[in-house]
Write the structure tokens for this entry.
Amino acid sequence: QSALTQPASVSGSPGQSITISCTGTSSDVGSYNYVSWYQQHPGKAPKLMIYDVSKRPSGVSGRFSGSKSGNTASLTISGLQAEDEADYFCSSYPGSTTVLFGGGTKLTVL
Amino acid sequence: EVQLVESGGGLIQPGGSLRLSCAASGHTVSSTYMSWVRQAPGKGLEWVSIIYSGGTTYYADSVKGRFTISRDNSRNTLYLQMNSLRAEDTAVYYCATNYYDGTGYYPDAFDIWGQGTMVTVSS
């Protein structure tokens, strides 16, 4: 299976909303609700922001939300803040005992 | 507080072996799903392996037959034995716990991560 496809970069101004897409296939993102999103600051370990397409772990800001349509999942960050600047990765479990990750998206807060 | 601390990384020649350790505190490794995820320098994340609480293990195709995940319950430590190492195995290796929301584990959701340990395969 191939990695999931994410845009290399997105940007937005403080207070704005941005959306990062994660495109898979009908065999992974399109067939299962196993989609997660991670935030990673430079030199740090990833942090789980969204799981099960749209659920937030305890402690994650409500400004982060997830959704899915067909083979594409999306992460939306509303009320953009400077500390949101980071790399974001999506993941999916295609039901075959493997886990796929996206290539990552660099979010720049202008 | 749950903490994971990896160790064992370093510089190794192609074809060599290395064993990574992940010492856990604040939770019991034998009672959770745990995984290894790696990240090559400047690249994205790549899932490597998982061990279920019952002991079942799975591997990415890229490491199958070369890497072995295991745990020592008495030491509360997760391991990754890496044999026949290749240049493309060069990466930061993270251990992580799979997220459990009270109803089940999520195979692609990793909620607690270690700080990572760097493995460099080069002659």
Summary: Chain A has a mean pLDDT of 95. Chain A touches chain B at residues 3, 34-36, 38, 45-48, 51-52, 55, 57, 89, 91-93, 97-104 (CB under 8 Å). The first strand of chain A starts at residue 9 and ends at 12.
